[in-house]
Amino acid sequence: MTSGESFYGGIPVFRGFTSLMDPALYAPLPDDWSIGVADIVDSTKAIVAQRYKAVNMAGAAVIAAVTNALEGREFPFVFGGDGASFAVAPSDIEPAREALAATATWVREDLDLKMRVAMVPVGAIRAQGLDVRIARFGPSANLSYAMFSGGGLAWADAAMKRGEFAVNEAPAGTQPDLSGLSCRFEVIPAARGLILSVLVMPARGADPAAFRKVIEDIIHLVERSPDGGRPVPAQGPPLKWPPQGLDFEARTKRGGSLLARRASVLAYTLFVYLIMRFDLNVGGFVPNVYKRQVVENSDFRKYDDGLRMILDCTPQLERALSDRLAAAARDGIVHYGLYQQDAAMMTCFTPSALRSDHVHFIDGARGGYASAATALKAMMA
Predict the structure, then answer these.
(1) Which of 84, 248, 256, 355 fits 260 for a cystine, CB–CB 3.0-4.6 Å?
(2) Contact call for residues 120 and 160 (beta carbons, < 8 A)
(3) CA distances (Å), 332 to each of 203, 205, 208, 336, 379, in order?
(4) pLDDT per residue over 343-366, tens digit each?
(5) Per-state percent for the chain, helix, strand, coil, to nearest 5
(6) What residues contact residue 192 under an 8 Å CB cut-off, 6+ apart?
(7) What integer is the mean pLDDT of 236-240?
(8) H-helix segments, 203-343
């Protein structure tokens, strides 16, 4: 590996989310890397049609497909609810591009959604006077998540939506490797009053120091709430059989008819349900350890040129957050979107249940990040 290709592994992991806005934690991506971006076209219509799980499955599929295409090599990524973004080293650009193309085809054919995808060179972003800087936040000792700053990721997303740097879909019938992608858990009801989707972006021309202060104020408000607003209960999310996500998981499998894949997933998920239900240790798998890791590894807060959070919070905390953000918006510091719902949902990427680094993406179960983004766009109009 060249020093550029080993760049991500060399970034120290920080643990306290309150340190998120410290610029010293962020390192600039090497110039020869590229940014991958993906999102669902007309995700708002899909949300109105209550296709929340399909939209989330599409976004998580990007990360699963690229991870499998890179044979498990670490790379920075962020899940956005109705899409995803990531960064890859030069030697991984083509495999990632192929995984994006195949995922877009799968999303159209199996989920009946349209996904646009693009690969944007970091050099093109820096030519705009912007940057892509990466930090690594460790929510637990098990794994870390990438945080992005510098404005470059937001610019890449906007460029994709303008049709620039587009990656064309793979030929019909192309199936990405989505091994490990599943959505077996039930929705997670709010325990403290409501599930709040939060999206906060800097207003154009906002003073960086003022924006940092707003984000730090929001994080401190949340940190004072029980469990930092984590929407996943200590005992793990609800699990039933057959799972709600049965059909989606069957569609991630390769080979055979859809009916045969459904039958296979039905049998396997029954096996998993019985192990989890009766707390059976099987072949080195310890259900209680796995459930604890699911809670610890839940990806419910992140930063990708803006703050994203899915919080289980009281109405009082929602009002405090709303008041602080409204004041910052009046001062021309932020644009923001908040969206309330009664539950959260989880989409899982577990390449191996025997490893501790399985990833669990959290979104609101009735609109989530996509609806918060709609509210944010309305504010900007």
Answers:
(1) 256
(2) yes
(3) 6, 8, 12, 11, 12
(4) 999 999 999 888 899 999 999 999
(5) 40, 25, 35
(6) 225, 226, 312, 313, 314
(7) 94
(8) 208-223, 246-252, 258-277, 287-296, 315-330
